[in-house]
């Protein structure tokens, strides 16, 4: 992986962007792609970056298949799981509501940043210490409802007036990006789904100045973690012929996970998802991608995710239906403060995307869209 790509991933992971507050991430995408794509937005905060493969400069939006070629939507969601301030207590502690799916066990003792009206405020998630718990309470899982964020305020007035913290403010996990001792492993927050955003940004950058027989839309969708909302609005805007959802994959190479639960491993290649809760990826599109992997000698892994969904759940239901494929970069410890990815998996996913785009001309797409 090039150092410029590592730096891009650092910026993306360290940007703060919980559902409904994704502007910081969208700005990075726009900075990287505006020089050679046509940028537009929906009204939820999603960003759409269009590259017409017939032209080397900016292109106007293709309005129908055949004018500019098939429309291929590469979707990675901008948002990350986080929280929102719901109350500041009279003692100056912050109570919070989740934005996205959290497992309560991973919260205690973690640092967070509250994006208050007067700037960022660091805090730590706490609860009643175990020394003061009754014996029967110590063995119970501490629930989020009993937790609070300590921002060091003396009282509510200091927290609200001086620190600028008010109900409705977003709260983001604090976890700096870094390379592990094994330099092929990258650690950071929000891989779900900044890795997907990084994939379409890097893919479009490698397509810069190149022709291809389709129109590619790199789409950073908003509010995926709270209902796949940006996927719905952007699919309505683009009206794609095919959709490729770019996501994390749940890495099963940690203690306690069997191959039946997740056979996916860091460094094992692109993850191709066969099933998730909100959709069944198109079988012909899936097999087409697997065939490309074999032809191009791109390592790949297949997986099933019975719980959890992706933006494909909305994209594939647009209009008469949009055949969708789900590709993922294996990731350890998703939906927590810090995750781990392997640079080789990211690079191989970009390689597959470029190979697919090269092959998805009008004839190929017509075959994928024709009745089985």
Looking at the overall shape, the CATH architecture of the largest domain is 3-Layer(aba) Sandwich
Principal-axis shape equals globular
Mean pLDDT: 93
At the fold tier of CATH, the topology name of the largest domain is Aminopeptidase
Report on the biggest sheet. 8 strands, mixed
Radius of gyration, in Å, reads 21 Å
Strand order of the largest sheet: 1-2-12-3-13-16-14-15
Number of separate structural domains: 2
State the end-to-end CA separation: 39 Å
Kindly name the structural category: alpha+beta
Strand/helix succession: HHEEEEEEEHEHEEEHEHEEHEHEEHH
DSSP strand count: 17
Fourth-tier CATH superfamily name of the largest domain? Zn peptidases
Assign the CATH class of the largest domain.
Alpha Beta
The oligomeric status of these chains comes to single chain
Which percent range describes the beta-strand content? Answer: 25-35%
Question: pLDDT under 50 segments (min length 5)?
Answer: 56-64
Percent helix: 25-40%
Number of discrete helical segments: 10
For the structure shown, list the relevant keywords.
six-stranded antiparallel beta sheet, alpha+beta, eight-stranded mixed beta sheet, Aminopeptidase, 2 domains, 26% strand, Elongation Factor Tu (Ef-tu), domain 3, 10 helices, 372 residues
Can you characterise this structure?
By secondary structure, this protein is α+β, with helices and mostly antiparallel strands. It folds into two domains: 3-80 and 189-369, Aminopeptidase, CATH 3.40.630.10; 82-173, Peptidase M42, domain 2 (Elongation Factor Tu (Ef-tu), domain 3, Beta Barrel), CATH 2.40.30.40. Helices cover 28% and strands 26% of the residues. The protein has ten helices and 17 strands. Strands 1-2-12-3-13-16-14-15 form an eight-stranded mixed β-sheet, with helices on both faces. The longest helix is centred in the middle third of the chain and has 17 residues, at 191-207. Residues 56-64 have low confidence and may be disordered.
């Amino acid at each position: 992986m090039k150092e410029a790509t590592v730096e891009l991933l650092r910026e993306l992971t360290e940007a703060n962007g919980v559902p409904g507050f994704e502007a910081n991430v969208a700005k990075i995408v726009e900075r990287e792609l505006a020089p050679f794509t046509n940028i537009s937005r929906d009204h939820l905060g999603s960003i759409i970056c269009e590259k017409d493969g017939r032209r080397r400069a900016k292109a106007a939006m293709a309005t129908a298949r055949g004018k500019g070629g098939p429309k291929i939507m590469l979707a990675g969601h901008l948002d990350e799981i986080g929280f929102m301030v719901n109350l500041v207590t009279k003692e100056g502690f912050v109570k919070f509501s989740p934005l996205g799916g959290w497992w309560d066990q991973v919260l205690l003792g973690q640092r967070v940043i509250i994006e208050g009206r007067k700037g960022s405020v660091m805090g730590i998630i706490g609860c009643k210490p175990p020394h003061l718990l009754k014996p029967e309470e110590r063995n119970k899982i501490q629930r989020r409802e009993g937790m609070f964020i300590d921002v060091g305020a003396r009282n509510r007035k200091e927290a609200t007036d001086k620190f600028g913290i008010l109900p409705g403010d977003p709260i983001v996990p604090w976890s700096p990006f870094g390379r592990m001792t094994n330099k092929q492993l990258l650690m950071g927050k929000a891989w779900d789904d900044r890795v997907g955003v990084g994939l379409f940004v890097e893919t479009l950058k490698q397509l810069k100045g190149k022709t291809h027989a389709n129109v590619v839309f790199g789409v950073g969708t908003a509010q995926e973690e709270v209902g796949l909302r940006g996927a719905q609005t952007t699919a309505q805007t683009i009206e794609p012929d095919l959709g490729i959802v770019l996501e994390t994959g749940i890495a099963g190479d940690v203690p306690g996970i069997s191959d039946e639960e997740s056979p996916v491993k860091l460094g094992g290649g692109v993850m191709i998802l066969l099933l998730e809760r909100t959709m069944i990826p198109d079988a012909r599109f899936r097999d087409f991608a697997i065939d490309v992997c074999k032809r191009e000698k791109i390592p790949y892994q297949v997986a099933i995710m019975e719980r959890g969904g992706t933006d494909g759940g909305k994209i594939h239901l647009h209009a008469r239906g949009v055949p969708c494929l789900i590709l993922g970069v294996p990731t350890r410890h998703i939906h927590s403060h810090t995750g781990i990815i392997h640079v080789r998996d990211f690079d191989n996913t970009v390689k597959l995307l470029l190979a697919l785009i090269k092959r998805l001309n009008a004839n190929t797409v017509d075959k994928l869209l024709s009745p089985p």
